[in-house]
UniProtKB/TrEMBL annotation:
Belongs to the sulfotransferase 1 family. The keyword Transferase applies. Pfam families: Sulfotransfer_1 (PF00685). InterPro entries: P-loop_NTPase, Sulfotransferase_dom. It comes from Cardamine amara subsp. amara. The keyword Transferase applies. This is Sulfotransferase.
Amino acid sequence: MVESFCRGVHYFGPFWDNVLSYWRGSLEEPKHVLFMRYEDLKAEPCAQVMRLAEFLGCPFTEEEMCSGSIEEILESCSLHDLSNLEINKTGKSWNNVDNNIYFRKGEVDDWKNHLTTEMENKIDMIIRERFQGSGLKI
């Protein structure tokens, strides 16, 4: 699986190219492309939800921020709540894959529990190569 991923063989095309195209799009057209990192979402969930709402043209009002609306959204969209929805426990995606495989721990750097040092080094090398000069830091 790691070898295929590194070669760009993936359901949705070459991962590296997709990430870079969205990254560049966010720099060239920031009003049309929002680039978010999972690590940022985990580190500052409220700030990132506010950023997303602003991008969508639906910023939170002062009243909504004070009433706990952001926290309610974060809870509704939490890994815990989403993974416990019946459709995500028993349903299948468009390509007949069980939905529950899309839910792991939701922890930053959990990949370290699944990849060998050799795999990590190979992916790091590809990231350095592919993202060099782009300004994108992963």
